[in-house]
Specification:
The protein is mainly beta. The protein has a five-stranded mixed beta barrel. A hairpin with a 2-residue loop joins strand 4 and strand 5.
């Protein structure tokens, strides 16, 4: 475990998870995390335009697009940055 992982774990324990629903308004843009070799999807929701959401991608991750209405659970990772725990498309028929 690296020091960055340890610090990230401490921050996440201090920040309770938050859940929100919104439409992807900006992005998602896939970038490579400079601290690791992981790919990260960066996006913004119309309901929280001041937050930058970041979701670590895996080969099994579902591809989301601008305009998708999604439910997101996240934790604050810094000023204006939200680390996504999970995300799902909201069925408009519910």
């Amino acid at each position: 475990m690296s020091i960055a992982d340890l610090v990230k774990g401490i921050i996440h324990r201090q920040s309770p998870p938050v859940e929100t629903v919104g439409t992807i308004a900006d992005g998602p843009t896939v970038v490579v995390d400079p601290h690791s070799s992981h790919r990260v999807a960066v996006f913004r929701l119309d309901t929280n335009p001041n937050l930058e959401f970041r979701q670590e991608l895996s080969p099994l991750s579902v591809e989301h697009r601008r305009g998708d209405r999604v439910r997101v659970q996240y934790q604050m990772d810094g000023a204006g940055v939200a680390q996504v725990n999970w995300m799902e498309v909201v069925d408009e028929g519910r």
